[in-house]
Amino acid sequence: MIGFNMKKGEIRLNGVSKIYKSREKRQGFSALNGINLIIKPGDRIGLIGHNGSGKTTLLKIIAGIARASEGEVKIEGKINSLLEIGAGFHPDLSGLENIMLNGLLAGLSRKRVLELTDQIVEYSGLEKFIKMPFYTYSSGMKLKLAFSVAVAANPDILIFDEVVSMGDEKFIKLFKRYFVEVLKQKKTVIFATHVLEILPLYCDKTVWMEDGKIIMEGGSKQVIGKYLEVERKA
Amino acid sequence: MFGIGLSQRRWWDFLVTMTEREIKSKYKLSFLGIFWIILNPLIQMLVIGFIFKFFTPIKTENYLLYLFSGLIVWNFFSSSVTRSTPAIVNERYLLKKAKFPREMIILSIVLSNFVQFLISISLLGLMMVLMGTKINGLTWLYLPVCLLLILLFTAGCSLIFSSFNVRYRDTSLAINFLVSIWFYATPVIYVSTMLPTWVSKWLYLNPLTGLMDFFRWSILGWQIENWFLMLGDVIVSLLVFGIGSYIFKKMSLDFDDWI
User: Fold this and answer.
1) CB-based burial of residue A152 (10 Å sphere; 0-12 exposed, 13-18 middle, 19+ buried)?
2) Tell me, what's the ipTM?
3) Please, are residues B49 and B71 in contact by the beta-carbon 8 Å criterion?
4) B67-106 as b/e, with b when 16 or more CB fall inside 10 Å?
5) How far is the C-alpha of A7 from the C-alpha of A186, rounded, in Å?
6) Phi then psi dihedrals of residue A219, to 5 deg
7) Residue of A21, A79, A106 with shortest CB distance to B257
8) Inter-chain contact A64–B98, Cβ cutoff 8 Å?
9) Which residue in A63, A67, A90 is closest to B253 by CB distance?
10) Rounded to two decimals, what is the model's pTM?
11) Would you state the pLDDT for residue B153?
């Protein structure tokens, strides 16, 4: 039985499937198929696989954004997800007002966000722009603010999708800087990416998905090695 | 109905912040800002009142008050519903961030319009004082009940339409069209007793007719012609809210699949 004695930052998926009925196919589109996965508190998991392998769907189900069609999803602790740049922010509101909105979505109380606001602004380095509307921000600035709120919210689980790490060199550098900072906090981290070279540096374990199934999981070097091997043969 | 959503304090915080945001973002970049809340019904009333004075002689005492009271209820309802219907799709960037009670988005829109409604009501009160209207003290006590019913009915409709719009995007187009017809099916600019009885009875199929009666009775002391039909509409309004909450809760679990 799962669900008992779970620790903060723990994730347990048991036979999780997802069928998108919205794709007006006869039986729907099966994005995930019987996923079993246990992630322990403090685990840093890399998620790899080709486009359409179900990575984003899996992240969304863990984040509680989407619902699993079948199976059990047990999650203990506060989650923060960075799946899309600008998610959880309102374009018309200022950076400052958005800190409140985003902080509440991250599970903080209004009072707590007010207490943390100065700290968040400082950490983001956006003092000069904090009263400007969010739509005027560059992708880099949006990322800075999202990270700063996420760090301040002190979640037990952090989920990243690759899209938030994509950009020009300067942007990727910025992402890495913040990401390393987050890793230091010893949270449970799940990171979906195509950039395989850097993965072993950040994640001790890697999960490889194809066609909505987990093909392999284990040490990052091992899994990535196998992935590249298969890739070369194909 | 929202027991699950509002059981945690932080979701109250969230609802308040979202409502503030809704009000702020509406007037933020506008020049006249918050004055639009007062200007809007006032100009509408003057224009319609002017036209009706000349073209359709409605022989009713205090037609302006009758008209204004109807317009503010109507404006609250129609702007809430038209703004809520596409809201889940429009606010997808919020849904893509975290798990939270999705009804907060709709309720914050309805509540922000409700704040405007309350301001309009105080404007109506001011007009009544200026025009020297006699105020029947007792019916005023029912005003909070009446406002709550209008709020619940509007929220119910907004929840139903917005959840359908996630799957069927035609909903928001249909609602825009429906609302323009709905206006004429509600005694806003005309008085239902002017119509033949068999017609005016049918009007009560529209819960807003009964709610409008209730509102004018409590605030203006206007007579209610048919208490039975009015109370029927009150019950239907509550049902609409209950059904709306249920449908929304059920459908919201899968919103992400469609946006």
Assistant:
1) buried
2) 0.87
3) no
4) bbbbbbbbbbbbbbbbbbbbbbbbbbbbbbbbbbbbbbbb
5) 14
6) -60, 140
7) A21
8) yes
9) A67
10) 0.90
11) 98
